[in-house]
Amino acid sequence: MDSRYPIHEVFASIQGEGLFVGQPQVFVRVDGCPLRCRWCDTPQTWGLPSDSKQGTDWSADPVRSWCTAQEVAERVRELDPLGRRSVSLTGGEPLMWPGLVEQLRKLLPGARLHLETAGAFPRTLERLLDQVDHVSADLKLPGDMQTPVPLQSALRDFEEAPRDAVQWRLARRAVLALLADRDACLKLVVAAGPEAQDYSELLDDVRELAADLPLYLQSVTPLRDVQAADSKTLDLLVEMAQSRGLSTRVLPQVHALLGLR
Ligand code: SF4
């Protein structure tokens, strides 16, 4: 029997973040994320659909259902019959579902697959690196992270999420080492709260392990009790990145500005 994966939604839109900002893409958004970033803009994807919800009623928005990779690939082809768009695997956390990524690679052989990940799961990332064409990895300040909530499934073996600053640093360094010299970019969401100096260790790690990768400082879209960082902090961060020889750019979430999904 084909494996099923928790799909939140599959839709066509414009990439609003990172190296491919502005590019038309098809997005496959999975459900399930054990992390709890304080500025998460997709908390509706943290949990999983109920076990009984299966199949593809794509008119439901979001579909929020357990689907086969075949069903997802067919929906991608429906949304982009000419195969012009790259396919962004996003979430939630796609690295919770490596089998889906591997099957989509086979089912969409001509498509450019972009993986958007939290940068917290190096063991699974290593397994999937050769299955995708581009990786956009988040760098997280441990202070921005609340305690993770592991996903529960008797049938799956999930890689454990980092729980403290030491584990976050180990995961970050492993991810940076894997992505160095690859088709990849790094993204750092910047919100009000931390001082620019709080990012020093993280930027040192990028300089040491993956200085060739473009680093996008993404000013947070204000939500709930999270506000945007002030321009002074952003200026300081740019200086800190440049003084380490990093190639950096500051971007807002462009899809949010345009009122797109
Ligand atoms: S990793 Fe992504 S989906 Fe998970 S909590 Fe953070 S921003 Fe939200």
Task: Tell me the CATH topology.
Answer: TIM Barrel
Overall mean confidence score, pLDDT: 95
Strand content of the residues, in percent? 15-25%
Major pleated sheet? 9 strands, mixed
Bound molecules: iron/sulfur cluster
CATH superfamily: Aldolase class I
Name the helix and strand elements from N-terminus to C-terminus, one letter apiece: EEEHEHEHEHEHEHEH
| Side-by-side strand order of the widest sheet | 3-1-2-4-5-6-7-8-9
Please identify the top-level CATH class.
Alpha Beta
What Rg, in angstroms, do the CA atoms define?
A: 18 Å
Instruction: Report the structural category.
Output: alpha/beta
Report the helical percentage: 25-40%
Report how far the terminal alpha carbons are from each other. 33 Å
Structural summary, described in words:
The structure is a single chain. This protein has 261 residues and is of the alpha/beta class. It has one domain (4-257): Aldolase class I (TIM Barrel), CATH 3.20.20.70. Helices cover 27% and strands 21% of the residues. Helix 3 (122-128) links the parallel strand 5 (113-117) and strand 6 (134-139). Helix 1 crosses helix 2. The longest helix is centred in the middle third of the chain and has 15 residues, at 165-179. The mean pLDDT is 95. Residues 33, 35-37, 40, 42, 45, 91-93, 118 line the site of iron/sulfur cluster. Iron/sulfur cluster binds at residues 33, 35-37, 40, 42, 45, 91-93, 118.
